[in-house]
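Exercise 7. Predict the structure of Conjugative transposon protein TraN from Flavobacterium zepuense.
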Amino acid sequence: MKLHHIKNSLLTVLLIIAVNATAQVKQPDALSLGPITPYAIEVTYDKTSHIIFPAGIRYVDLGSDYIVAGKADDADNVLRVKAATKGFDPETNFSIITEDGNFYSFNACYSDSPWVMSYNLASGQTLVNRSQAADVRFVELGKAPASVTELLMERLYEKDQRTIKDIRSDSYGITFSLRGIYVHEGKYYFHTQIDNGTYVPFVVDFARFKVVDRKVAKRTVVQERTLIPLRTYKPLLPVNGNADERNIFLLDVFTLTKGQVLLIEVFEKNGGRGQVLRVKNSDLLKAKPISKLKFKF
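Solution. The predicted structure, encoded as tokens:
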């Protein structure tokens, strides 16, 4: 009986200690870390508001059925927003994730006559406030946040350094060259350039990366594998007469087996001046580490 009483007393004491300990625990600190201040936007029923983002829109989440939103046709960085219900109250919200890995939050309230109908988040967005924005990690980019990947591509483009001089294709007045191959966090960065030495614009239809096996004697393709770039720094812009255009393509790291070659192809829209670069495994293995370029962010 005494032993039973002692056990009960012990359990009571332990329960009190546990309750007190729980009472002293504060609310989870995770919610108070790194708050994202939402933008305020007014929407109306009879007009459409537009928001221009610095990068393409990847994800849209609406807080309620009070509003409707979607990407503008042929402009993946422009969001259209309008009220689905007249005079809704209280306010609602929506969130956006862009291709450069930034997360944006908005509080939307109804107005019969909004003061502003178009918002440009792309203008005046400096590297400083980009680094302070919420960073999103995409599965295909691995460890590196998308915004860091975007900045690396931007820095490589601005630096415009040629580290490869002998990989080029030249015909019909068009020169396609590989200026450099860089590697960082399991990704290749291919820096390319197209020079148009004619007065006829070279309109790029598409670019393709392809690994092929070749029988040297017969020159016939035995097997091929297409590699899809994870990111392209710029859209594939037309190359005007006597002008040039550069770009940077991001791909997962890979190597080639004996007898394989990487083909980088650009195709001309409604034309036959397409060009092909041939990259060997030894070229890939000479990729320059971006960490040694000492970029400042």
